[in-house]
Amino acid sequence: MQGGHTAEMFRILRSLPAVEFNSRQYIVADTDHISSGKAVEFESHFNSEAYILKIPRSREVGQSWFTTAFSSIKALFHCISLVFSHSPDILISNGPGTCIPVCLAVYLQKLLRIKHNSIIYVETYARVKSPSLTGKIMYHISDRFLTQWKYEGMSSAEFVGPLI
Fold first, then answer.
1. Local structure of 129: helix, strand or coil
2. Are 38 and 14 in contact (CB under 8 A)?
3. Rounded to an integer, what distance in angstroms lies between the CA atom of residue 9 and that of residue 16?
């Protein structure tokens, strides 16, 4: 979560009943210092447990697609370890691509029948005409795929309208 995605996520989180989510874990890229600070600031308003967990970024801005494969595999293995040790009940994500390894690790837990958890993906508000690459991937592995705009050919997507 950084920049627009971070702001969007905290707007979404503000709309959720905090009492039902009394223990939250924020997963951010290890090179993203802005989102960590925003999470600490957000959590200062609650009297609950919250953890900030750092993962290697799958792809840095401007990184070649060839080396992205290797950094994504590294991130995936890190996320598998993290998800299996923290075992979330619900994962809410709005991208960006950093979320893919985390979501795949949660999905793996479900496939292996280790835990029945839910993945909720909210496509970013900025994607007006078509889903992002992350959204196109998440459409296939998320339990709920929420969109703020209507897209053709995504029959199981849930149009919820603007959330921000």
1. coil
2. no
3. 11
From the number of C-beta atoms within 10 Å of its C-beta (0-12, 13-18, 19+), residue 62 rates as exposed
Residues in the chain: 164
Nearest to 132 by CA among 111, 116, 147, 143: 147
* Digit-coded pLDDT (tens) for 127-152: 777 888 888 999 999 999 998 888 87
Bridge partner residues of 91 (DSSP): 119
Residue with tokens 């009940």: 89
Whether the pLDDT of residue 20 is over 90: the answer is no
Q: How far apart are CA 136 and CA 107, in angstroms?
A: 16
Cα–Cα dist 103/120, whole Å: 9
Cis upstream peptide for 56 (omega within 30°):
no
